[in-house]
Amino acid sequence: MQTTRCVGLAFLPAKGSHHHKAAGASAAAPPVLIGGSVKLVLLSRQLVCFSWSRHRVRTWASAAAASSATTPRQELLEEEDGNQIISRNVSNFEPSVWGDFFLTYSSPLASSTQQLTRMIERANHLTRNVSKIISASSNCSLYERMQLINVLERLCLDHLFKEELNVILSEIYKTNDISGSDLQTTALWFYLLRKHGYQVSPDVFAKFKDEQGNFAANNPLDVLSLYNAAYLRTNGEIILDEAVSFTKRSLESLLTNLQGPLAHEVKCALEIPLPRRVRIYEAVGYFKRKQKNP
């Protein structure tokens, strides 16, 4: 009589099992019996593995679909001679949730004919007023005329008065003598003329040096004007190289004692000198500073 070992509460034959004959084993070996509780455990493990496999397949399928929808692909075009060339990358992005809202949106103020007409009339009126100021500046001092040009340029409005400003610059270059001018006026003169392509020598700053060859300037406005003008230097202009080194050290030491808009102007100049700034961004900041401190 054959005996078996109990491995569970009940014994059931394993369905679909294949009995392999080992070397020297009897052909009449008894069937393998698996307890009921053990069978449930094995079945649950098979279900878990099967569920995990399906989950992985679904995940991979979703990732592949998302990748194909957003990953650029190269579109091939065929020429007349049969050669294929790569024209551009094509991406199939999902439509925007906003649709065409911003393509067709217009401000009620801007779309109003009456409001638009009023703004145009206001702009033309202000342009005429500024033109009158430019014409009347012929009776002003050299510094005031140059400062008018400088303000219009920093506000990005100089293109509206290009002819009038060119006439003033030409007069300044031909007729005005700056031998007796202070450092701030001389620096602004050099800055505007060189910026507009006039050939001016940096030797005009030599008179502001002391016997030791150092610049004798301690006024923040004078130093700031020289700092901006010196950054229009060209290769080999030693006096402007010295001016940059001197003014940078001086502004860094003066900044701790400055307040208000001048302190902000000096801080901005140390970060990016005026000739190297983007004009439209500079205009926004300059306009805000002028609103607070006209």
Automatic annotation (TrEMBL):
Domain of life: Eukaryota
Record domain Terpene synthase N-terminal: where: 97-270
Pfam families: Terpene_synth
Single GO molecular function: terpene synthase activity
One annotated GO biological process: terpenoid biosynthetic process
Residues spanning the membrane: none
Name of the featured protein: Terpene synthase N-terminal domain-containing protein
